[in-house]
Design a protein that fits this description.
By secondary structure, the chain is mainly α. The protein contains 39 helices and three strands.
Length: 680
Amino acid sequence: MISRCRFLSTFSANSKRSSSASPTPSATLIGATKNAPNDDPHRQSYPFPHPGRLGGSMPETGLAHLVDSASTLSFCFHALKISAKLGLLNGGKQLHARVIMLGHCNLLSLQNQFLSVYVKCKEFNSVCKMFDEMPWKNVVSWNTLICGVVQGNCKSALVRLGFHYFGQMIKRMAPDCITLNALLRASVELSDLGIGRQLHCFILKSGFNSSCFLGSALVDSYAKFALVDEAQSAFDEVLSRDLVLWNVMVSCYALNGLQEKAFGVFKFMLLEGVKGDEFTFTSMISSCSVSGSCRLGKQIHCLIIRLSFDLDVLVSSAVVDMYSKNENIEDARNAFNGMPSKNRVSWTTMIVGYGQHGDGKEAMRLLREMIRVYTYPDELALASILSSCGNLSASSEVVQVHAYVVEHGFESFLSIANALISSYSKCGSIGSAFQSFISVADPNIISWTSLMGAYAFHGLSKKGIEVFEKMLSSNVRPDKVAFLAVLSACAHGGFILEGLHYFNLMINVYQIIPDSEHYTCIIDILGRAGFLDEAVNLLASLLVEPRSNTLVAFLGACKVHRNEGLARWASEKLFSMEPNEPGNYSLMSNMYASVGNWFDVARIRKMMRKMCDFKVPGCSWMEVAGKVHTFVSSDTTHPQTVQIYSMLDLLVRLMEEDGVSNMELGNELIPKEFVFISGC
């Protein structure tokens, strides 16, 4: 057996040591060993050596050590449990070597403990080799191996190895609920519904379908595959249901956005006399975390307060999340302020809520307050703050968060690195966005796409295309979003042939079905180049009705090339599709104005006033010394209007002296159109 375990590394230094002193033997363990039946195969394979049997050939210290083998075994059991829990691989190997020297290497309970240590330390080669060489195995041995291999592993090869051992197990002994539960979870990780269905059939044939434990696992696996009917069937098969099974069924409907059915299960649960716990109400309130469900969420919130579940941090955090996702940020903050205690999840939920609401300033204030109370943010909170600050173009806040990220070692998180790329891009700092990208050791598809989008957004289309080509050479498989980014770059830069090449590459090589946004880019590419007839043919060949953004892109191309007939055709479709969108009317009005058709300009403007509400003027903003200044067209409300106009007039005169024409400025005197209004 010693030769069989050489793969565990050599421990000659430890195994040659002898004990100078021995603790008192464990009478209970010794007595149990003496009373064990002689026909027990395990007993015969690892008998405790009798002192007289080895006394003539062993030194006295070795004899005393063997007399105390029961205490040694007791120590090994406890030490192995600690090694498995803490992942102490070297300690486990040293104990394994000592057990081999003592002659107890075939003790089944010890072997199972060693398997557990190697599994927890991710030594899967050692686990499989030791397991294959074990002369006897019980259900604990099989479960330790199978559960350890399939759980928590993203590598499909390891997960399938667990199923291979399961196939061997059912030829020798019957699996139990623990085995099947681990395999059901593994089928979800593999996204393999077929395996899940086969396991369900095996559970039915084995008579485990009435088990609450396995019933909960089945319902959960079907819920994650969005098969709510199958989940309900698995739930109905269990006649005696515990609270966990009820919670999983409620969570199934909540996870799949079926609020009414989630509430139906909840009511049925109350009729059965089962009282919910914090997990029940967390699922219930989470089912209301979609737009338009705030009224129902408030009713659940009232019930939570009445039953005092608002004292639970998990439930209260779910309430905050529900209000913020329903765009009711004030109630979210009130629920947050009313929490008796807060943890990192609570703070992160509120910060993410402000980030999604576009209030980066308040998210930053909350982050500072969070740090002041010694609750430190995680990568989710930091990524959310970066995204919200990027949406506001608040460059100073992005730099501050970036400094915190570097100081506390969060730069290795891909989610934060990707958020930094996007945020710096939206703040106009393309150089910092590139530096954030090159600091990523192993960029993923999101990293590459973020950088491509940054270059396209800033008009650096050629660089965006170069990034895409470099991504392909790095063996990163592009997805729909990556192709959309490179097509956008081609559209903005006027790279017609490249855009058509990537569009064909997406369809024919990567087998990606284009959606409306991809077609919008192709229409934009053809339209900008003046191929309006080809763009119309493409629109007519679409299997589905083109979306509004596709028609807007085509209408914009018609305006550039002053094709009034095609523009009228596109506008009719657009007005019927979005009759209350003022931007569509403005675009068509400008089209008529570009060809001097003032009668139709007046007609379209009249239609816009009749069909649309007040149009919110478009605005731009910039940050100066930590203060955001917003400017719109034809407004003179900024306190420094006089100085701004004077500077703009000076710039116009300088450009005119250098021969810059109005056409190069965008057909209009841009400085006269933009005036700052009061900062926010």
